[in-house]
Design the sequence.
């Protein structure tokens, strides 16, 4: 799965290069969406945000799906990861910050935090270091200038039992998190096809659900065959096995 994730990130860099080339000959991005209106936070979203932390410029990519936030932001020459720490009501949250060189689950680590409140078109709050000895103001606003793109986020999930009708049957579960461009112009369609290709879906497929179902069905067929072969090799000793395949597209979706 790590290799799959690295492949996807590499694919994004390729898309970025190709998108920049396309922009030289056609109008791209969402130039009319730079000015956003005040809205409530929805159950799932992708947002591109610009602003400052401690007075220094920041570009942030943040998504929410299944109640969990994750994302990245660029600050002072480094990309930093963001994950959910605490949710406070519908419009306030605390995000934990990690650099790309840190393990997510470092024992006894004191991670910096972003304590944010939604303003209707962005976030404001405080950045605090792990020891809480330093605190800086955070001001962010949702923006999509030329060269950046708005996306929706979604998930496809499915599961299957190895032996239908058995309550203690081994089973497999598959999950795909994905992003989809909201633009329906030529560039939006081209970008959508590239993201489908990286996910393993045939280009020009209309519905992601159909593409993901084909991948899931092939995976489940192989899974059932493997479990059946294991059962034939010896008596059932009551083992219980769950296989899970999970694919997530990282939260760096804008190319600016």
Sequence:
């Amino acid at each position: 799965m790590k290799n799959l994730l690295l492949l996807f990130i590499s694919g994004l860099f390729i898309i970025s290069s190709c998108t920049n080339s396309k922009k030289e000959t056609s109008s791209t991005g969402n130039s009319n969406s730079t000015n956003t209106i005040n809205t409530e936070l929805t159950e799932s979203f992708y947002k591109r945000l610009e602003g400052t932390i401690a007075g220094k410029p920041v570009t942030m990519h943040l998504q929410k799906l299944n109640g969990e936030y994750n994302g990245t932001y660029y600050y002072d020459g480094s990309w930093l990861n963001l994950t959910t720490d605490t949710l406070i009501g519908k419009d306030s949250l605390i995000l934990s910050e990690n650099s790309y060189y840190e393990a997510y689950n470092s024992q006894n680590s004191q991670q910096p935090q972003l304590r944010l409140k939604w303003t209707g078109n962005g976030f404001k709050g405080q950045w605090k270091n792990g020891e809480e000895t330093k605190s800086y103001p955070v001001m962010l606003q949702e923006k999509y200038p030329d060269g950046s793109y708005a996306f929706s986020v979604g998930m496809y999930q499915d599961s299957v039992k190895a032996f239908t009708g058995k309550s203690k049957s081994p089973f497999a579960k598959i999950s795909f998190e994905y992003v989809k461009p909201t633009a329906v112009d030529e560039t939006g369609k081209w970008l959508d096809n590239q993201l489908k290709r990286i996910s393993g879906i045939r280009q020009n497929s209309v519905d992601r659900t159909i593409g993901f179902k084909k991948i899931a069905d092939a995976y489940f067929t192989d899974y059932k065959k493997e479990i059946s072969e294991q059962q034939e090799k010896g008596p059932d000793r009551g083992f219980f096995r769950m296989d899970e395949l999970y694919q997530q597209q990282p939260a760096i979706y804008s190319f600016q």
Summary: The chain has two domains: 1-32+148-256, 35-142.
